[in-house]
Amino acid sequence: MHPVLFHLGSIVIPAYGALAALGVLLALLLALRTGPKAGVDPNQLWNLCIVALFSAVVGSRLLLVALNFSALRLHPRWLLGLAMIHHPLLAGVGGAFAVVAAGLYRRWQQMPLWATADAVAAPLALGLGMEQVGALLAGSGYGTPSTLPWAVTYFHPVTTLWSGTPLGVAVHPVQAYAAVAFFALCLMLWLWLPRQARPGDVAGLALAGFGVALFVTEFWRDAEGRGSLLDGALDGPQAAAVMLVLAGAAILWERKPRALGAAPRDPAEKNEASDV
């Protein structure tokens, strides 16, 4: 594959970084369309996405620095190489920083909770799909060995240097599987957004969809560095996927339409619905 997209003199432009950046841009542009459909100010939504993105990058890089502080203190120039490192733990920490920052910004700007969550669902799926395309080119999060006709083989030494990808071994293009799942989920969320019964439906479906896509595709990912739970029955990302599905199901159950004339369970629910 192509871990290095191209060179600008001595500057290396990695495929993963370029595709991830393109995914962010496309997601932001899509958010400008989903915001009005969900009843959210697109300018506020754009700012929320920028805050969440910046927080995710800062959070994941701070973790890398903390874990490698001794080496970086002796070789500070290695800081420039941290952007090439990808790991499920970094994604999890970055995602946690993004959720907290987005939540604080939402409260500060008094944006409606469920409408905002609905608006960011499809853009997030699009961004994750583009990120997985970049991972496929870079060899990051590579798959298990495969003899299928569509298996991919990496030969570029940079894939091993940056991602530990085995060279000369045909593996499942699991990143492509994940990308297709995320793109399909993005389309589904986009189509359902103006048709949902009440705010929160799209957000619940998105969480469940993310969880299912993550859980299933993990069966074809190499287990290196992904942890092990229940005597190897699940890896770390799959455990997180189960939590996402449960969270999505809980939101859909809580937000399901109720009998005509029934009082809402949460007094704030009626206020938010009127805001939307």
Walk me through the structure.
- The chain has 276 residues and is mostly helical.
- The protein has one domain (4-40, 112-257, 265-275).
- Helices cover 63% and strands 5% of the residues.
- It contains 10 helices and 4 strands; from the N terminus they run ββαααααβαβαααα.
- The chain has helices at 15-38, 42-67, 69-74, 88-109, 113-138, 157-163, 174-192, 201-217, 236-254, 267-275, and strands at 4-8, 11-14, 152-153, 170-171.
- Strands 1-2 form a two-stranded antiparallel sheet. It has a two-stranded antiparallel ribbon with strand order 3-4.
- A hairpin with a 2-residue loop joins strand 1 and strand 2.
- Helix 7 (174-192) packs antiparallel against helix 8 (201-217).
- It is globular.
- The N and C termini lie far apart (46 Å).
- The relative contact order is 0.13.
- Residues 259-271 have low confidence and may be disordered.
Low-confidence residue ranges: 259-271
Q: Count the strands?
A: 4
Number of H- or I-type helical stretches: 10
The structural class is mainly alpha
Rg for CA atoms: 20 Å
Tell me the strand order in the biggest sheet.
1-2
